[in-house]
What does this fold into?
Amino acid sequence: MKNLLVMFALTILFAGCSTNNSNSAARPEQVPQVLAANEAAAQARLRSIVTAEMSYQFEGDGQYATLEELVQKGAMSDPSQGKLTGYRFAVKVKPGGFEATAVPERFGITGKRSFFVDESRTLRAADKGGLPATASDPAAQ
It folds into this structure.
């Protein structure tokens, strides 16, 4: 299912890319469907991270793990080495929990919204201008 979602997102990405040719110095613009697909893939990846964190915490000593530790322990795969469909992912362990973020690699081109999730499992999203989302941002819709 995850591979199917990634393939779908990549198909949309390659089929829907466009550039503004009226001004050669202009920044490339992305069609809304591509941004939506990238954002959906980022949200799905964060949900996978939550699942891996819950399993790691339950099966281990009650602790959470960084993305690198989750991959090393086999709790999840990371063929993209912290990147997926135009987003960068980071997982930070904090006392009693974790924080995972997804930030567009190229704001406005690969995505507009940044995402955040922690041990509460509430996915949060906001247009942060390319900066990470936080626990104070609204729940994703």
Remarks:
- The chain has three helices and five strands.
- The mean pLDDT is 81.
- Residues 2-126 form one domain.
- The beta strands are 83-84, 87-94, 97-104, 114-118, 124-126.
